[in-house]
């Protein structure tokens, strides 16, 4: 999609829930839409303190349309998750399932990068901060032992955090490609504007059913159980009481 919104503003910006501290102090791991120029407004400055590394999950053609413009002291890592065309009109679960089944190596690279960068603060983003970022956030939080209801709720709020300008641009772009009464148009709108809790819950339950747990899935694709323990300990996550 074409660039949208104010290039000096960041949407969908928030810390990952339930993560409290690292060895160096308060945990600084955030998620967002494309930040563009990292020149934050006063409210955003209150929300973000000390980002040392930005992990960009977008494809090269997306970056050409709207590159990150970061201060010199902020590190930048690009790990494209799709490794190909950005999905246009697929069901959300189909997109996520393909990432899980075909892009395990890329997901592992992201998780290892998060582990390495965490103490200095890390921001993970894609374009809207909804799908690719939502999947990575869910995996990080699962490794940290955060209660699944919290993980799903964090994912589900993403659509509501996107501005009206984003929703309007999606509708305009999709209507130029499909008849607005077509199923393709409706499917494209759902993919690019929604973040239904049922989609993330279904995906995580699928990993439980097929692999035994999210941890076992990650172990199978190359993020070992010892590496997961390092990340979990690094986060010092606040775990939910048993039975919660």
UniProtKB/TrEMBL annotation:
Residues 90-141 form the Tyrosine specific protein phosphatases domain. Gene3D superfamilies: Protein tyrosine phosphatase superfamily. It comes from the Bacteria. One of its GO terms (molecular function) is protein tyrosine phosphatase activity. Coiled coil: none annotated. It is an enzyme of class 3 (hydrolase). InterPro entries: Prot-tyrosine_phosphatase-like (IPR029021), Tyr/Ser_Pase_IphP-type (IPR026893), Tyr_Pase_AS (IPR016130), Tyr_Pase_dom (IPR000387). Pfam families: Y_phosphatase3 (PF13350). Its EC number is 3.1.3.48. Keywords: Hydrolase. Residues 1-24 are annotated as: Disordered. The keyword Hydrolase applies. The keyword Nucleotidyltransferase does not apply. Belongs to the protein-tyrosine phosphatase family. This is Tyrosine-protein phosphatase.
């Amino acid at each position: 999609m074409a660039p949208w919104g104010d290039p000096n503003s960041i949407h969908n910006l928030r810390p990952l829930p339930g993560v409290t501290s690292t060895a160096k102090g308060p945990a600084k791991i955030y998620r967002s839409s494309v930040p563009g120029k990292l020149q934050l407004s006063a409210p955003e400055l209150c929300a973000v303190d000390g980002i040392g590394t930005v992990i960009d999950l977008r494809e090269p053609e997306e970056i050409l349309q709207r590159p990150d413009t970061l201060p010199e002291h902020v590190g930048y890592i690009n790990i494209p998750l799709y490794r190909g065309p950005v999905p246009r009109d697929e069901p959300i679960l189909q997109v996520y399932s393909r990432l899980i089944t075909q892009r395990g190596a890329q997901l592992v690279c992201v998780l290892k990068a998060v582990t390495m960068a965490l103490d200095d603060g890390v921001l993970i983003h894609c374009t809207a901060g909804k799908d690719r970022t939502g999947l990575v956030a869910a995996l990080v939080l699962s490794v940290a032992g955060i209660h699944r209801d919290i993980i799903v709720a964090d994912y589900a709020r993403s659509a509501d955090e996107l501005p009206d300008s984003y929703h309007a641009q999606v509708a305009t772009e999709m209507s130029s490609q499909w008849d607005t009464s077509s199923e393709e148009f409706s499917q494209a709108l759902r993919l690019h504007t929604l973040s239904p809790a049922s989609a993330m819950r279904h995906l995580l339950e699928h990993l439980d059913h097929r692999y035994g747990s999210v941890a076992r899935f990650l172990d199978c694709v190359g993020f070992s159980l010892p590496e997961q323990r390092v990340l979990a300990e690094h986060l010092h996550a606040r775990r939910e009481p048993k039975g919660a």
